[in-house]
Specification:
- Helix 5 crosses helix 6, helix 8 crosses helix 9 and helix 14 packs across helix 15.
- This protein starts with 17 loop residues before the first helix and ends in an 11-residue tail after the last helix.
- It is built from 21 helices and 20 strands.
- It is globular, with a radius of gyration of 26 Å.
- The chain has three domains: 129 residues, 2-Layer Sandwich (Chitobiase, domain 2), CATH 3.30.379; 333 residues, TIM Barrel, CATH 3.20.20.80; 124 residues, Alpha-d-glucuronidase, C-terminal Domain (Alpha-Beta Complex), CATH 3.90.1330.
- The chain is an alpha/beta fold.
- The chain binds beta-D-glucopyranuronic acid.
- The site of beta-D-glucopyranuronic acid has 10 residues, from loops.
- Beta-D-glucopyranuronic acid binds next to loops.
Length: 682
C-alpha cells in the first residue's frame, strides 16, 4: 500500500502500528484502560503477524502496570532503575533492556500514553538500548471544547465556528449515535494526550438544557465511548437552566431553591456518569444569562455550581470571556480589551477550589496576533486555564493553511513578569493553582475530520503542547508527518516532508502578513468573520476598532493618554507596552495610535510596512500553492487529499489577494501616501 486509503485514521493509520504489530507483546495489569492497550495490541499484532503472548514465552515488548504481580523481570528492572518523581496516573517510563522494550506505568492511562509513545517512536523503539526515561504530562488537564449545537443554529449551523461539516455527536436535535466514529475520535485524542472534552456549545440553546434531564442517556453514551481512552466528558450548561426548564422562577445563585436544583441535577448526572468531569459555563457574555441579572458576582455564580459538583469531584470551567458587546462606540475610553481583567481580577481568591477560570489567551478574541491576556498574571489565588482556538475562526477558517503551533508556543512561553519569571505554561501547569489548557475543537463529520486536511496538524500540535508546552512546534509537525503520511509510503519521504514544511512552517506569519496589520486585529467581514472588510466592525458596538483616519491608525491603550489597558500588566510589560519605542512592532497598533509615518523598530514606516507585508503575504500564499502543486502525480499523498488541499490553496491565494488589495487600497486612500515601490494598489 502506497497511500492512505482510510482517511479517518488521520495520525493513526494502521501502518503506524506495524513496528508493534510484528512483535510479541506482553501486557500486564488490570483495568479498563489496560484493556484498551490489550485491544490495541491485539488489533495491531492480528494485522502484522506478531502476537499478544504470556510472560513465560519469548517476548519483544512489555506494557506493565507497576503494581502487576509478578512483574516481568525487564519491567521490574526499568522501574528499579528509575529515580525521578512520581509518574502519577498518566505518566510512564520507557526503556529497553536486553532486547526488550518496556513501558511501565502506575495507571492505565499512563500505559495507554506509553503505547502511543511507542507508535511515535516507530522502529527506533526496538533498536539498541534505551535508557529508562519518564514521560509525565506537564499539565494535568488537557481539554477540548466542542462548540457543537444539538440543533442547527439558523446562522451558525451545527457547529458554531465549525469548518469541517456537521457535529460528530448531534444532528437535528438528536444524538447521532455514530459511536464507532466517536470512539475513533477518542482514540485520536488520546494519542495526542487529550484527557477531557466538552461536547456541546458554550452558547447553550434552550433545548440543550435537557441534556441535564431527559437527554442524559445520550450524554452517558458519549461518555462511555470516551472513557476507554482516558477522556472525561464535560457539558456546557446554561446558567438559567432552572428557569429555562420551567422548574423555578429564578436562577439566583444565592437562592436556596436554585442551589438545591443544581445539587439534584449534579446528582443525576453523576448517577449516569460516575466520572463526569463537570460543567463549562459562559455567563453574562454575548447574550448568555448569568449572575449579573440577580445582582450577584461571577464568584457567586461559579461557586454555586462548584458546590453542586464538589461531592463528586467535578469542576466548573467558568469562562472569563465577559465583556459588553453593546458598548458605546463613540466613547473612546471604553475598551473591550480591559473587560476580563476589570470583571475578574478584583475577585481573585473568591472562587472555590474546584472552579477553573478559563481565560482566552488574548484579551480580545482569538485574533491572529494579540498580546497575552493580563488576567493570566493577575489572579494568583485562582485556578486558571488558558483557552486557545484550534478551530480557525479568525485564521482562515480551514480554507487557509495556518499552522498555529508557533503562535501557541509563543503564548505558553510568554513570561508575564518579564525575564526569569514564571511563564504562562508554568502557571497553568502548577499542581495546585494550574487549570491546564483548553482549546476550541476544529473537528466535524468531514472525512478528514478537519475540512482542510492540513488543519489536522493544529489539533495534533495542541494536544502535544498541552502535554509538553516546551515542545518545538516544527518538531511536532515532523511527528505529525511521520505518523500521518510516512508510514503509508514505501519510498523516500524527504520530498514530501520538505513540501509540507515549506507550506506549513511559516503559514501563521504569512496569514498575519496579508490580514490586519501590526496586531490591530479584526478587519474581517462581520458575522461569519471570513475575508477582509476593513471597516466591517468600525462603527458598531462590538468594541473591535482600529481607529484609522487620515493621520494615523491604531488603538491608544496607554495609561498616559489612552484607555489605561497597559496598566493591567505587571510592571515589566506595562512599561514595554506603554512606550511606542519599546512596544514590539507586531503589537504596535494594538497598543498605540500612531501617524502613518511613524518608523517601526524594523526601520520602515507604518504605512510602508502595511504595503510591504500585504504584497509579501499574498505572494507567499501563491508560493505555498506552487509548492503543493509540485506533488501532483507523484503519489506521495492520496489523490483526493491532494485535490482537497489544492482546491483550498486556490481559495487561499484568491482570498490573500483580496486582503492585500482591500487593505492596501484602504490605507492608501486614508493616508494619501503612495507605495515607495510603485506597486499596483487598486
Ligand atoms: C467568539 C465567537 C463566538 C463565540 C465566542 C465565545 O465568534 O461564536 O461564541 O467567541 O468564545 O470568538 O464564546
Amino acid at each position: 500500500m502506497d497511500i492512505a486509503t482510510d482517511v479517518h485514521a488521520a495520525w493513526l493509520p494502521s501502518e503506524a502500528f506495524r513496528p508493534i504489530g510484528t512483535r510479541r507483546v506482553v501486557v500486564q495489569g488490570e483495568g479498563e484502560l489496560v484493556e484498551t492497550v490489550r485491544r490495541e495490541v491485539e488489533g495491531a499484532t492480528g494485522v502484522y503477524g506478531g502476537g499478544l503472548v504470556g510472560t513465560g514465552t519469548g517476548y519483544d515488548v512489555v506494557f506493565a502496570l507497576a503494581g502487576a504481580q509478578p512483574l516481568v523481570g525487564e519491567a521490574a528492572g526499568v522501574l528499579a532503575g528509575y529515580e525521578g518523581g512520581a509518574l502519577g496516573g498518566e505518566g510512564f517510563l520507557v526503556g529497553r533492556v536486553e532486547g526488550v522494550t518496556v513501558v511501565v506505568a502506575e495507571g492505565g492511562a499512563g500505559l495507554l500514553y506509553g503505547l502511543f509513545h511507542l507508535v511515535r517512536l516507530g522502529e527506533s523503539a526496538f533498536r539498541g538500548e534505551l535508557a529508562a526515561r519518564a514521560h509525565v504530562p506537564a499539565l494535568r488537564s488537557r481539554m477540548l471544547d466542542h462548540w457543537d449545537n444539538l440543533t442547527a443554529h439558523p446562522v451558525m449551523g451545527h457547529v458554531e465556528r465549525g469548518y469541517a461539516g456537521g457535529s460528530i455527536f448531534w444532528r437535528d436535535g438528536e444524538a447521532r449515535r455514530d459511536l464507532p466514529r466517536v470512539r475513533a475520535y477518542a482514540r485520536l485524542l488520546a494519542a495526542v494526550g487529550i484527557n477531557a472534552v466538552s461536547v456541546n456549545n458554550v452558547n447553550v440553546q434552550a433545548a440543550e438544557t435537557r441534556l441535564l434531564t431527559e437527554r442524559l442517556a445520550d450524554v452517558a453514551e458519549l461518555a462511555d465511548a470516551f472513557r476507554p481512552y482516558g477522556i472525561r466528558l464535560h457539558l456546557s450548561v446554561n446558567f438559567a437552566s432552572p428557569v429555562v426548564l420551567g422548574d423555578l422562577e429564578t436562577a439566583d445563585p444565592l437562592d436556596e431553591g436554585v442551589r438545591a436544583w443544581w445539587a439534584a441535577a449534579a446528582g443525576r448526572v453523576y448517577a449516569a456518569i460516575p466520572d463526569f468531569g463537570g460543567f463549562v459555563v459562559k455567563a453574562d457574555s454575548e447574550g448568555q444569562p448569568g449572575p449579573f441579572a440577580y445582582g450577584r458576582t461571577h464568584a457567586d455564580g461559579a461557586n454555586m455550581l462548584a458546590a453542586a459538583l464538589r461531592p463528586y469531584g467535578g469542576q466548573v470551567h467558568w469562562r472569563a470571556f465577559v465583556y459588553d458587546h453593546r458598548q458605546d462606540w463613540r466613547d473612546r475610553t471604553t475598551d473591550r480589551a480591559r473587560a476580563a481583567y476589570d470583571h475578574f481580577a478584583p475577585q481573585d481568591g473568591e472562587f472555590a477550589a474546584n472552579v477553573v477560570l478559563q481565560v482566552k489567551h488574548g484579551p480580545m478574541d482569538f485574533q491572529t496576533r494579540e498580546p497575552v491576556s493580563p488576567v493570566i498574571a493577575a489572579m494568583p489565588r485562582t485556578r486558571l486555564a488558558v483557552e486557545l482556538q484550534v478551530t480557525q475562526e479568525y485564521t482562515g477558517q480551514q480554507r487557509h493553511v495556518c499552522y498555529l503551533g508557533p503562535m501557541w508556543r509563543e503564548v505558553l512561553g510568554f513570561g508575564p513578569w518579564g525575564e526569569g519569571g514564571k511563564s504562562v505554561a508554568d502557571l497553568v501547569a502548577d499542581p495546585t493553582a494550574g487549570g491546564g489548557l483548553v482549546a476550541v475543537s476544529n473537528v466535524g463529520d468531514d472525512a478528514y475530520w478537519t475540512g482542510h486536511p492540513l488543519a489536522q496538524a493544529n489539533l495534533y500540535a495542541f494536544g502535544r503542547l498541552a502535554w509538553d508546552p516546551a515542545a518545538d512546534p516544527v518538531a511536532l509537525l515532523d511527528e505529525w508527518i511521520d505518523l500521518t503520511f510516512v508510514p503509508l509510503l514505501s519510498r523516500d519521504a524527504a520530498p514530501l516532508r520538505s513540501t509540507l514544511h515549506a507550506v506549513m512552517d511559516g503559514s501563521w506569519r504569512t496569514y498575519e502578513r496579508y490580514t490586519a496589520p501590526l496586531g490591530v486585529g479584526f478587519m474581517v467581514r462581520p458575522g461569519h468573520h471570513y475575508g477582509p472588510d476593513v471597516d466591517g466592525y468600525e462603527y458598531t458596538p462590538w468594541g473591535t476598532y482600529h481607529y484609522a483616519d487620515r493621520d494615523g491608525v491604531g488603538v491608544d491603550r496607554t495609561r498616559a493618554t489612552g484607555t489605561g489597558y497597559t496598566g493591567q500588566y505587571p510592571a515589566a510589560w506595562a512599561e514595554v507596552y506603554e512606550a511606542r519605542e519599546t512596544c514590539p512592532d507586531e503589537l504596535l497598533l494594538f497598543f498605540h495610535h500612531v501617524p502613518y509615518g511613524h518608523v517601526l523598530g524594523s526601520g520602515v514606516t507604518v504605512i510602508q510596512h502595511i504595503y510591504d507585508t500585504h504584497f509579501a503575504g499574498a505572494e507567499e500564499a501563491a508560493e505555498m500553492r506552487a509548492r503543493w502543486a509540485e506533488l501532483a502525480g507523484t503519489g506521495l499523498v492520496d489523490a483526493s487529499l491532494y485535490a482537497r488541499v489544492l482546491e483550498r490553496l486556490d481559495e487561499q491565494v484568491r482570498c490573500a489577494g483580496e486582503w492585500r488589495d482591500q487593505v492596501n487600497a484602504y490605507f492608501w486612500r486614508k493616508s494619501g501616501v503612495p507605495d515607495a515601490h510603485g506597486r499596483l494598489i487598486p
